[in-house]
Amino acid sequence: MHSKYFENIVIYLSVLLACIILGVVARMFVIGVGADEFTANIVFLAVTLFGVLVYGLLSIFIKDLFTIIKKRFFPKKKQLKESNEKANDTARVNKIRIEQIQLITDQENNKIAIAVQYTQTVFAAYTSEKDLVLLSRNITSYAEKKPTSEILPVEVKELSSIDLYHFGWNIWNHFRNGNQLQMAAFLKKVFPSILGNVETETIKRHLKDDEQRGIIQIRKDLSEE
Fold first, then answer.
1. Which of 90, 104, 141, 156 gives 146 a disulfide partner, CB atoms 3.0 to 4.6 angstroms apart?
2. Has residue 225 been placed in a domain?
3. Is the pTM of this model over 0.90?
4. How far, in Å, are 18, 35, 38, 108 from residue 43 at the CA level?
């Protein structure tokens, strides 16, 4: 910064000196042709100031012309750098967004896997292999918020309504997917042979009754054994 300032001082002093020399030459010339001292001094001042003015105008013109030519024929490195930095920032943001989406997807898939494993473990002894597969699909459909038309009925044995209530609460608590009334409707459709005649509101009210009672009990965390 100081070097640039010094360079400007040298340039301006050089221009001023050159203009003064031109003024002196002009003054000597008019004296040589017979002009008086006063007129010679006026000519000296006028030529000097005119030289400074011409230099200033030329500097502005040349600078503007150079800027126009540079913009027209030579792209600015700064603009290219900013453009590259902006492109890099956009790419970085997109990468982070993709990573976050993938992370959320992995977490959701992991939660579904835990719920399906829990379901298969709990119902393995109380339903057929075919119905166990259907039940696992129903749990996946519930987790993915698919239409209820994709929910298929399942037959179970030796389980009471309270077992199914506890199972429903455990699944709902695991996903926190919708409200408990929706879970009640889900249970009613999945287990029609046991809950088909029970009102949805009634199922909802009893989801967490007698937590330690029954074959299927209330679980706070399905990933825990």
1. 141
2. no
3. no
4. 15, 10, 9, 90
- As a whole number of angstroms, the distance between CA 107 and CA 115 comes to 12
Cβ–Cβ < 8 Å for 153, 192: yes
Instruction: List Cβ neighbours of 113 (8 Å cut-off, separation of 6 or more).
Output: none
Residue 222 CA: distances (Å) to CA of 137, 141, 142: 17, 18, 16
Q: Assess whether 93 and 202 both reside in one domain.
A: yes
Print pLDDT tens along the chain (225 aa): 556 666 666 666 676 777 778 777 777 877 777 777 777 777 777 777 777 777 777 777 766 655 665 666 555 555 666 666 676 767 776 776 777 767 667 677 888 999 999 999 999 999 999 999 999 999 999 998 888 888 999 999 999 999 999 999 999 999 988 899 999 999 999 999 999 999 999 999 999 998 889 999 999 888 765
Does 212 map to a domain?
no
- Helices and strands per DSSP (H, E), number in the chain: 8, 0
Q: Is residue 156 part of a domain?
A: yes
Please state the length of the chain.
Answer: 225
Looking at the structure, tell me whether residues 36 and 103 fall in a common domain. no
Helix (H) or strand (E) holding 199: none
Cα angle 66, 68, 69; round to 5: 65
If asked whether residues 51 and 111 sit together in one domain, one would say: no
Residue 203: how many CB atoms within 10 A of its CB?
23
Tell which residue, 160, 174, 168, has the closest CA to residue 190: 168
